Amino acid sequence: MTTAAALAYTGHTVSCIDRNPEVLYSLSCGRAPFHEPGLKELLADGLLLSFGGWEIFDPLADAIFIAVATPGNPGGDANLSYVETVAEEIGRRIDKRANTVVVVKSTVPPGTARRVEAIISATLETRGISTNLSIASNPEFLREGTALYDMFYPDRIVVGANNELAVDTLRQMFTSILEQTFKPPAPVPRPQNYKLPVFFTTTPDSAELIKYAANAFLAMKISFINEFAGLAEHVGADITEVARGIGLDERIGRCYLMAGAGWGGSCFGKDISAILHTARQFNYDMYMLEATVKANLRQQESIIKKLQSELKVLRGTTIGILGISFKPGTDDVREAPFIAIARRLIELGAVVKAFDPVAIPSCRRNHPDLTVIYVNNAEEAAKNCDALVLITEWDVFSHLDYEKLGNNMKQKLIIDGRNALNPKTLIKNGFKYMGVGC
Ligand code: UGA
Q: How would DSSP label each residue in 278-342?
């Protein structure tokens, strides 16, 4: 959706096809069906965007982006059935005069662009036609919560293609982003000192692997700092200082070194599982990726351990949780550390109360079995609790009246699972403060 909105904003005519009528209805009314800052404002900007089913498919389109989900199968591999179904539908509908580039944007294992090409060609053959069609892989690097920013101001645009037509079409399509010739949309101003992005071309197989390697590397960086956070707690060091100290080395870089309650989201876990599955097909061990996942599970568990170290038996306690979504700026709860932590607390016999500024409806919808008490604000989450745990660093949690909150708690214990709060203020207010890696 963000890609569509940005392409429309930069002057293209874009038709968005989906099979979910609720999503289509919501978008046609200018409402984003999920929480993504700036998207609503952009949709209200009179863009050349239309929404519908296959009936709005343009058989002569210059480019067709396949951007469907590739969820994980139970064995960890990516489920490519939506990609394949869409490829077949494209083959059924494309015009024989088309000069179309079919762009695979979904996160897919190496070889998928080739598979998409084969499916479309086979379908065209059954229609007895051939077209001047080419395939490209164009992985996406958007982060939820800052998706528009990442779309308009990327570090690089990666295109994997085996022919010039595909590369030229995509280069042209992204020209105004590559050259930054568009007027920045009001909700997404251009950052100062922004350097023009690199247009990086390669083969489809490499482009597909770049996407997995990027996500795996970022997750590994976080697991790495989290592992050091555990050690910092033992030796009495402060992980925030350690992260700053190593991040100043440009070879390491400052980003993705924030220790916390573990990484989550629909991408890191799913993508690491999928690439581990690919590696297993070659009997190839990927030790670092296996450890990345293992370290992340321990990191989530470390929040429980901290509670146990202070409260001992958790049965009969009430724990208030601040933050449900897997990160701030989104209502997405897929693989959110909150889910695993809340589940474990409930298993151990604690009562869990939770507040999130936007993610409560999506958590209720996606985890109806989770017996959490959802509350309307942070004050209610803290009331009569034995401990308060911050899991998602929504900005609003940094500005709460902790003195008042503490006065309504049974015990003034706070676990700051994102090192987002000011320990001095909390300690001054009589809290026992426990961060991560400090
Ligand atoms: C991730 C990648 O960052 C995007 O580049 C990629 O396009 C996307 O997956 C995808 O494959 O679609 P996203 O899952 O939206 O983006 O979220 P991130 O901002 O990367 O955060 C992932 C998790 O890591 C969150 O739970 C966040 O709290 C955690 N995190 C992030 C840390 O614990 N520490 C950090 O320093 C950074």
A: HHHTTT---HHHHHHHHHHHHHHHHHHHHHHHHHS--TT-EEEEE--SSSTT----TT-HHHHHH
